[in-house]
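Hi support team,

I'm filing this because I wasn't sure whether my run with 2-acetamido-2-deoxy-beta-D-glucopyranose finished correctly. The job status page said complete, but I'd like someone to confirm that the output block is well-formed before I use it downstream. Pasting the exact inputs I used:
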Amino acid sequence: MKLDLMGNNIGDAKVVLLLVLLVCSLCSGRVCAVDVHASIKNMLGNGNMMSIHCQSKDNDLGNQTVSDGSEFGWDFSPNVWGTTLFYCDLDWKNVSDFYFDAYAFARDSVRCKTLCSWLVSGEGMYGFNEGTGLWEFMYNWPS
Ligand SMILES: *[C@@H]1O[C@H](CO)[C@@H](O)[C@H](O)[C@H]1NC(C)=O
Ligand SMILES: *[C@@H]1O[C@H](CO)[C@@H](O)[C@H](O)[C@H]1NC(C)=O
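And here is everything the job wrote out:
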């Protein structure tokens, strides 16, 4: 058995490296990459506008103004490390600087397998659960 400087078995390390390379090449070839569509819809009513600013570590989607009845959406592929996170800052007439996670892999890899849809309403935010096919009340506005 050969050991490297860290004391790891070099044979095992080679196998792990090979597996990582295999997974990466499959994913970059889009075989195992799953595209997710995220969308956030303004259902506030009464002509209320909202502004929303979402970002991840690598992408800043900008500050978007969304009119009553419209939605803002984007597509992404969760990374193979399971660390994908899109967080948003939302403002509307009654609420300012409300932070929420639009997509967090640990919470959403099953709940939002391909669709991560949100409804912004006067009482709070609803999220669509693809696993159950139900809209769930996810966030209360701060009082
Ligand atoms: C977006 O920009 C407007 C105008 O500058 C600002 O009032 C609002 O707070 C911003 N919204 C977010 C979510 O950053
Ligand atoms: C927003 O705030 C106003 C004034 O406090 C209140 O009358 C109204 O019901 C609120 N709107 C919603 C949708 O909660």
